[in-house]
Design goal:
Blueprint lengths: L2 H10 L4 H18 L6 H11 L2 H8 L9 H32 L6 H37 L34 H19 L1 H4 L1 E4 L6 E5 L3 H6 L1 H21 L4 H22 L7 H11 L3 H32 L2
Helix pairs in contact: 1-2, 1-4, 5-6, 5-7, 5-10, 7-10, 10-11, 11-13
Length: 331
């Protein structure tokens, strides 16, 4: 195990993105200068012991001091925020979507999307603020009541930091890391496609008029047929949300995660193929409009829709599965 790489990772991950590379090179050079030409693991541990906790060293590189919560609790505080708040936001996102599904009324497509987005942003903001406030309050109280310490950062074992603590921390290559942007991008996509599926008859199709007064003149899908498969769609959504939560907790691609990704991609693809192959899925109004627009027969149009949809889905799923295993193999 390369303790030097892990030590540098533990220092730089607590620093601003723009400074990480330079500080990593500087720190690597410093450690190299402190080690003898032929060094052992004990020499490495001795040097890292002199440098001290990576948490304390990282805060030494920062330009701005922390006044509300000091170095002893700050790293635990931030780690807890990163773990709890995203989970709370995911739960609130699911509850908003479920509530909207049960209380949906006849509205224009623009109003539907604006209402869902605005309510979602507002609720997620409120939940985030609530959790931020209470977690911060707890740590502020701890910071001001815990007096019998030497100011060293708190560790998971509540003991003084030693290089031995690095053995329990995996080294995560950058290309293997799962970013928060990827997590929330996945959530946003689930919300969009699920909304479009359950309200396809009101949202998807051929529109006429201006942006303020759009009118759906030819719905694309037969909503009755789509709703026949709601248990299957709920399973797909459940798998995708579970996978997003799993990615959030793990923070990196693993073989188990790649297998989970394969399962949810296969289930999603099978569900899509079953649904798209159902007779009368597309409305006659939509088929008539499109065949007239492109001057093709209805048989040709359906072949293009079904064949093209399945082809694109299979390619997309295969790429996702391949990418998952590729990232999992990065060492």
């Amino acid at each position: 195990m390369d303790l030097i790489k892990i030590y540098i990772q533990e220092v730089t991950r607590r620093l601003p993105e723009k400074n990480r590379e330079d500080i990593a090179l500087e720190l690597s050079s410093t450690i190299g200068d402190m080690l003898p030409d032929e060094y052992s693991d004990e020499d490495v541990k001795s040097v890292l012991e002199k440098l001290g906790s990576p948490v304390a060293l990282a805060y030494g590189y920062r330009d701005k001091p922390m006044y509300l919560i000091g170095p002893r609790y700050f790293d635990v505080y931030v780690s807890l925020l990163k773990m709890i708040i995203p989970i709370a936001l995911i739960v609130s996102f699911i509850s908003i979507f479920a509530e909207y599904l049960t209380g949906y009324s006849e509205e224009s497509p623009i109003n539907v999307m604006v209402s869902l987005i605005s309510k979602g942003i507002l609720t997620i903001f409120e939940v985030g603020i609530q959790f931020l406030f209470w977690i911060t309050l707890v740590f502020v109280i701890l910071e001001r009541t815990d007096k019998g310490h030497n100011g060293q950062p708190l560790t998971a074992t509540f003991k003084k930091w030693t290089p031995e603590d690095l053995k329990d921390i995996p080294y995560i290559p950058k290309k293997k890391t799962i970013s928060r942007i990827e997590i929330f991008g996945s959530l946003l996509w689930i919300g969009i496609w699920a909304t479009l599926y359950f309200y396809a008859e009101r949202l998807l199709g051929v529109y006429t008029g201006s942006l303020e007064g759009l009118k759906l003149v030819a719905p694309m899908f037969n909503q009755e047929i789509l709703l026949r498969y709601w248990p299957l769609i709920v399973i797909v959504i459940g798998l995708e949300l579970t996978f997003v939560l799993y990615k959030l907790i793990k923070g990196q691609w693993t073989k188990k995660m790649a297998v989970f990704n394969t399962v949810q991609e296969v289930v999603g693809a099978v569900a899509f193929i079953i649904i798209i192959g159902t007779p009368n899925l597309l409305t006659l109004e939509f088929i008539d409009y499109m065949t007239e627009l492109f001057s093709i027969s209805s048989t040709q149009f359906m072949s293009l829709i079904i064949g093209g949809g399945i082809f694109i889905l299979l390619i997309s799923s295969a790429m996702s599965i391949f990418d998952g295993f590729r990232k999992a193999k990065i060492g």
